[in-house]
Amino acid sequence: MADPSSYRPRPGDIPDSPGVYKFRDEHRRVIYVGKAKSLRQRLANYFQDLANLHPRTRTMVTTAASVEWTVVSTEVEALQLEYSWIKEFAPRFNVKYRDDKSYPYLAVTMNEEFPRVQVMRGRKKKGVRYFGPYAHAWAIRDTVDLLLRVFPVRTCSAGVLKNAARTGRPCLLGYIGKCSAPCVGRISAEEHRELAEEFCDFMAGRTGAHLRRLEKEMTEAAEALEYERAARLRDDIEALRKAMEKNAVVLADATDADLVAVAEDELEAAVQIFHVRGGRVRGQRGWVTDKVEDVTTGALVEHALQQLYGEESGDAVPREVLVSALPDPAGPVQQWLTGRRGANVSLRVPQRGDKKALMETVQRNARQALALHKTKRASDLTTRSRALEEIAEALGLDSAPLRIECYDVSHLQGDDVVASMVVFEDGLQRKSEYRRFRIKGFAGQDDVRSMHEVITRRFKRYLAEQERSGEWADGEGARAGGSPGALTEDDGRPRRFAYPPQLVVVDGGRPQVAAARRALDELGIDDIAVCGLAKRLEEVWLPGEDDPVVLPRSSEGLYLLQRVRDEAHRFAIAYQRTRRSKRLRSGPLDDVPGLGETRKQALIKHFGSVKRLRSATIDQICEVPGIGRKTAETIAAALAQAAPAAPAVNTATGEIMEDVEEAPLGAGAGGAGESATAGAPDDRRGQET
User: Fold this and answer.
1) Is the pLDDT higher at 405 or at 13?
2) Per DSSP, which regions of 564-658 are E strands?
3) Can you tell me the distance from the alpha carbon of 457 to that of 349, in angstroms, rounded to the nearest whole number?
4) pLDDT tens-digit series, residues 573-586
5) What is d(CA 290, CA 188) in angstroms, rounded to the nearest whole number?
6) Domains present along the chain, CATH in parentheses
7) Which contacts of 95-102 are long-range, i.e. CB under 8 A and separated by 24 or more positions?
8) How many CB atoms are closer than 10 A to CB 658?
9) Residue 429: its H or E element
């Protein structure tokens, strides 16, 4: 616990202007980001008598070890910078709304030759039109099933489409009239695109024109005695009306608006958002957050709007944004929304009529969501706290281990030896901190030496970062408002391995624990506890102890250690399999300099196997599109150096089977990548060390 007066800047050093400030802990990790109209007045609030502070604010300022700020010109700039820093640093004391699922959207891929209607989740893609979000994927499929009678747009995958075009036969939906089958030429690409545009118009709320057109066609067919066609049109009209009934009209003036309501208590808050388009509720979503700071309802609404519209692929800002409470001040937020939309946005609290009634419905949903969340999470919070306390008691720690790192070694009969490091903070996974290692110090299988190497490499990096941090702290940058410090990269992100754990867990028994402890001792680190969890009897081993610590089978502490160990094992296995797969799938062309994936595929298509390519002349290789003479000579030289595969032998006769083809060349191209987990471009999971 730090004394805030030890790092409090002098009031005269703090500018009396708009800006954004960051609190950092002793390891230079950002723990809180805030904005202010006047930095001097806002920061002064943090350095008053601790007894007057909100409990969570008190915890934050006593956890912090320094504060710094950045001056901006306007409150709108402060709002934008605050959001970008919260997204970049993920401070533990900031409001972060979360949910246990990604909401599905109804998407129309207008960027394809034959647009496809499908359910999509995750980041939005350019050229795709989205409708929603919906609470459940089945709600989207029910709606689409009704609309395909009238707008038979393609819904099949790229593989099904390609296969249908190759065979000249459409899929089942094409036979039953729920796809116009552009794959086999029943309609042209232009006609299919027009059909997709009509589908999008209907989903966007422009329904009247389509219904009037169908009713007119039905009447004309009946007058022309085309009763079967008239009956089909009648059924189409009924299907459209059923689809419309699923989204009842809530605002009679065909308003486009988002309604945001917050329900809160002392500890947590829930936000509910209704997306209204064309006067109809087109989607709904909800988030929850811990109130780890003393924040008003208006500030909670502001954070929700930042998360909703702040991402590059975030939701489009509608003409009206109706909220249960206005941010204070509301002007900068409204200006920011207007800038995001490119046109005026009305940000207000509805006072009367249908909009107020709908806001009360959204507010009621928020209260119910908060009550349900608290019911589900109450036992979870208690359980995690009890688990950490049990671990601290069993291992003789001074305090609960809020950060636990676990290491595991994986290999296959001594080949492709790798290790993993997973991180749990406050009993929960922190996947952005996961790391993975290739064993470099020796070849072959030796789990003890591997564990020693991994622990040594990880904590050597930690000591290096601490040394750099100390050098920085002795310089001019240590003053408040200075540079981010040595524990951050040039782009401001925290450096890898700069944050130490309170407990290191290794997957294994006494030998692995001893190796980990020896590695730390060699580095002079004596303030980090070490234990091991052996799989056979789930015994907890401590360094230098002849007997293990046996936790009760019903112990929450043992269950948490098992989860940490199993996650490390899973992560190590995934990486080991990735490396093994890549090694086994590699081909002789993988080491040819300048030969990329496209030209490898061209060689595969042209020759079909390594054997045929190896026997080809340089002139024949030059016939492949994109292959010049110099590249052809390099390919021929690389194949000549590579040992050819042994000829296949008929085990029954002993004869060499001359006609057996080798596996296609370049089989490793495009194989499994280096990363064991998928993530966003800036996701640090699976970084190799």
Assistant:
1) 405
2) none
3) 56
4) 988 888 877 765 66
5) 54
6) 4-71 (3.40.1440.10), 257-373 (3.30.420), 401-581 (3.30.420.340), 587-667 (1.10.150.20)
7) 95/269, 95/289, 95/291, 95/292, 95/293, 95/295, 95/299, 95/300, 95/303, 96/289, 97/271, 97/287, 97/288, 97/289, 97/303, 97/304, 97/307, 98/287, 98/288, 98/289, 99/285, 99/286, 99/287, 99/288
8) 7
9) strand 428-429
* Cα distance between residue 582 and residue 669, in whole Å: 9
The winner for highest mean pLDDT among 258-262, 381-385, 469-473 is 258-262
Q: At what angle do helices 510-522 and 447-473 cross, to 10 degrees?
A: 30
* CA–CA distances in Å: residue 399 to residues 227, 427, 500, 619: 81, 14, 15, 73
If we measure between CA atoms, which residue out of 71, 67, 72 comes closest to residue 91? 67
The amino acid present at 7, given as its one-letter code, is: Y
Work out the average pLDDT over 368-376.
76
Write down the pTM of the prediction: 0.50
- Residue 685: pLDDT band by 50, 70, 90 thresholds? very low
Q: What is the CA radius of gyration of the chain?
A: 31
The structure tokens 């979870």 sit at: 380
CA 496 to chain centre: 19
Token pair listed for 110: 């207008």
Given this model, what pLDDT does residue 421 score? 93
Q: Are 687 and 679 in contact (CB under 8 A)?
A: no
Q: What are the phi and psi torsion angles at 11 (to 5°)?
A: -55, -35
The count of other CB atoms within 10 Å of the CB of residue 82 is: 24
Query: Residue 125's CB: how many other CB atoms inside 10 A?
Result: 12
If you average pLDDT over residues 348-373, what whole number do you get?
85
DSSP 487-501: TB-TTSPBPTT-S--
Q: What average pLDDT does this structure show over 162-170?
A: 87
CA distance 620 to 673: 32
The residue among 194, 114, 198, 210 whose CA lies nearest residue 156 is 114
pLDDT at residue 687, rounded to an integer? 56
Using DSSP's 3-state secondary structure scheme, residue 625 falls into: coil
Given a cut of 80, whether residue 532 has pLDDT beyond it is yes
